[in-house]
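Practice problem: predict the structure.
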Amino acid sequence: MVVGELAHERDVVIIGGGPGGYNAAIRAAQLGLSVTLIEKAELGGVCLNKGCIPSKVFTHAAQKMAEISHIEEIGIKLGHVSFQLGKLQNYKTKVVTQLRQGVEALCKANRIEVICGKASFLSEDRIGVESGEAFAVYRFRHAIIATGASYVSPPSITIDHDRILNAYSIYGVEALPSHLLVYGDDYIALEVAMSFHAFGSQVSVITNDGTFGLDETVAKELQRIWKKRKIKLYRHCKVESVTSSPDAVAATLKTASGETVTAEGSHIFVACEAKANIDELGLDRLGIQRTEQGFIEINHQAQTSLSHIFAVGDVTGGSMLAVKAIKQGKVAAETIAGKQSEIDLTFLPTIVHSIPPIASVGLTEEEAKAQYEDIRVGSFPVAGNGYAGIIGQKDGVVKIISDTKHDLILGVHMIGVGAIDLISSGIIGLEMAAHEEDIKFPFYPHPSNNESLLEAVEALQAEAVHLPPAKQKGNEKKAVSR
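Answer:
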């Protein structure tokens, strides 16, 4: 190993090239700072190479599979249709490669020094980088830690990446599971379940509570859809152990009543908890404060307990979402450059690329009842939306929650076609402290999925045109399609 004699001087050194890291790097470079970005694997991090992007390639393909029956219904003859997992894997690789090359090109265009190597702190203003046989020292004015987190399987389950899979290996399977068990309570479990069901796998879902952290109305609609599609749901169950053989797995479940049940399948997906990737960073030399769970503690500017060192993304704990990491990375860069910038995660949305998609922001009905004296709830079934009828995607519901006293919108929850795009209207509304009239007043294109949001808001005060009068405040009867 060759040790560099001189320390390279940089305004900003960033450890980790995932969404938080490379967004921070580009934003810092835009603001005129000299930037070195260190990544030990590939730019884009886990999100681009193993997580977000591969999973969305699968959910996109699953959605297309789910649309086939409707395509034939409207007169387009397809002939024999089959799903080829190998081709999907090739497409996934192509998309990931193209996007990674795009990130590399952006870093080059912004004159960001990108180093492939392992980094660790030597002191409060120096980072050592091991790259092959070389070792270099960088002296920095500011540093950003964006090393992410890794999945840790439950103590009772050993992930073998063959038949017992996690979020990394599920999208690398070489053969379609005949019967996939899905164990978890997060959005990843939902996406896995719906995607593989669309591809033709039999799917059984094992969950601790069955709500997946969603508003109760959305969770009930999801369970209705699963029942219709013959997706078996084991609610209030915990997996005690998993055994595998060359061609099957068996999960021993403990129910809420203490009963032991066995669920069998060809494969099992396990949603795992996350652990911050900090073990090799030398943080003990710096005394940076951490949370009880071991994540790096930060403030609203993404600063750690050492104000010139920042942390962004999964390494800071909380929701493991790229959208959070991206925002934190930009805020960190802007703060370093002397700009007034901050992070507020109050209206961080929940997004699930399931079939149909799920999106929510703000308070659930249960949370709103706990915080406000009196609330209104308006809901509109997607089946009542004319455009949903045209495209043959009528499952779902849109729900709005408001404060009765001030007509203030408190939460927006959706399951149904267009939910992920439409939730941006809810996010902007909540950020701007929108009242009911602020959402009702604008024009909504007709026919479009957007009108479901309008009618859900109108239903708050019994004004929805396509809901029967007696059911304006509920969702018990089917809406009248326009």
